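ok here's the first one, seq then struct tokens
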Amino acid sequence: MKQVTTGARLSLKGVGHRFGETRVVNAIDLEIDPGEFVTLLGPSGCGKSTLLRILAGLLKQSDGQVCINEQDVTGLSPAERGVGIVFQNYALFPHMTVQANVAYGLQAQRLGDRQAIEQTVEKMLATVKLSEFAKRYPRELSGGQQQRVALARTLAVNPRILLLDEPLGALDKNLRLDMQIEIRRLQRELNITTIMVTHDQEEALSMSDRVAVLNAGKLEQFDTPTTIYDRPASAFVATFVGTANLLEAQLFKHDERFVTQPKVGGALTLSDPKPCAQPGPVVLAIRPEQWVMVGDEAKKHSLVATVQLVMPLGPALVIDLLLQDGTSIKLSMPRAQAVSLEHGMVVNLSLREGAQPAVFASA
């Protein structure tokens, strides 16, 4: 059987869902391009797993449409939709060999005769680099190998769309990185439209073409990982995706320059405040790497802070500080550039040159 996977276009049009009187998914609109890797990212209870079940055909939405290649697939089963699902627990049959597990979906859907199925299984095991493990049982495999068997079984039936439900949650950190690379390699090689659910921000940012950030059933932002990190659309996105220091301030405009005045300390200059450029009370979302320590000569344009804790994290150094009003601030820098800091030291913080912290209207 020839493996001919091509990306399908996936459209969500006003998709919503209620459990009783509780609305868990609220009017989600998404247009996902053929062959795109999209991650549904959010905290527990945000609606991402419910949305994945709706996409899979395991749950019928209360409102809206799910379309694949412009066809409304509401009411169709996963097989009728051409959707393949990989679950967090892999769902392998323990009494079957690797080879038999991969062949199961092909046999159940009668996708070819015995010889064609054997050829497809052989090709899929080669694709996930498990040919030599064909005769083994799941209990004889590592977690990463079991994950690859689950992927091979799902991809063997040539789905139009691949759904991944927290696929790396059961793996340790080193294995997760290897599997991130492996899943992305397979996805690109097969050009299959892929939707992954995770609460892990690093996974979402490193693997995805675009990320849909969900909060309390609503879509907060749908964009590239770089844009979501650099230009978050809301304070929730800024604090959930990565780390952000939130500071209340007043935004002023002088000629063509913008200046923010925090509650304590000196003024901070901004060249391009987004998403809010309206003078008035605002909240600044400043990433730890956007801070820089400066000398007393720049005190008028800096904030005074006291060092609380210095933590080396691999190649980086994370410093916890307190502003004069008791606000906690985190600063990060490459360890190679670190200066000697001790608890209780007083330093001046300003924005690193070129830094563009997000600015939000104060509620």
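and now the second one, same deal
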Amino acid sequence: MQTHKLSKAPNNENKIISATEATVLVVDDNNVNLTVIKKLLNKALINVDTAKCGRDAVKMASSNKYDIIFMDHLMPGIDGIESLHLIKRDDCDLNINTPTIILTANADSSIKDKYLAVGFDDYLGKPVKPEMLYKIVQKYVPDNKLIHMEIKNDNSSGKVYECQLTHRIKTHKDTCIKAQIENIRNVCNELNTVSGIESCGSSETYIDVLEQYLQNGNETLLQIEQDLKKSDYHDYKIRVHSLKSTSSLIGAMELSNKALILEEAVTKGNTDIIIQETPGFLDDFKKMLQNLSIAFSPNENSEKDNEEKPPISKENFEAAISTIKEFVSVFDFDSADYVIKELSMYSAPIDDEVFFKEIKKMIKNVDHDDLMPILERRIH
């Protein structure tokens, strides 16, 4: 995520759009999809709530007014269509007129018409393309909440981030990202990293998404195996559909295409194909997870024990925290995370160890609302 590089207004290269007063709800049962959409929306300084199931979405919509709701279709429990109808029938009427956008990997135009017919206001294909997401934002966020700003070609950013570490952090960040992407390319031959980076909007987000994909992988693998064993083809289809979308998002097109074949087999009731092809499909998925695990394995010497770390002065520590505050204030959590990594190379002042652990966790969780008050109290 790049600071101040927000979504560009269509047909106007000298304008950027943000919506700091807008709040949207994103509903998807897959953490990978939530990560991508949330980070893309954060680039436009939009406040984002997330829900991992339809029931949570209905509950959140009954107590919070949203400017847009992005709703996945296929989810365990109540699906996106049922969730939409429950939100629109809610007695509180908070979101009865809120534009609700269906998120789905079904790209057929007739499917799109079906979604519009059941009450959705628009359609956004998965994997989500940044430019299409920003068009939806510009179309449905009220005009009084959209901010159009001129892009100024100046070099005054140093005045904003007045910290001796900033240049070193940026250089270190760029170097680390390039090295990590190159390592992923070398280890994971099945990945089209160019496509993945384009879909995710940036190299930083792509790396985060791959980590989420890896973290969720073993659970997804086990769930599909259990669904097949129980002949639960309803949940099997939901999980394979989700894996099709996330695999396409990261550039694992061969795996995504195999998932599509299995999804269509469920739709057609062809259990023979499901039984025959699933084991090979899962073997390919396991190999992908193994390769990603190798790519993300930390270097044995990358983390020093506390006693081996050099101390950092109180003055430099405070300067770095001030830089973090500036990054977080514009939702640039990627850059804030690299400041954290830079600080982690040193031993924090003793009276700041608890504080440092707390903000480190919040930055990892992209917890803007709770983190900013803490940083503001710290940096006056």
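notes on #2: Residues 1-16, 149-164, 299-306 have pLDDT under 50 and may be disordered. Strands lie at 7-8, 15-18, 23-27, 47-51, 68-72, 100-104, 122-125, 147-150.
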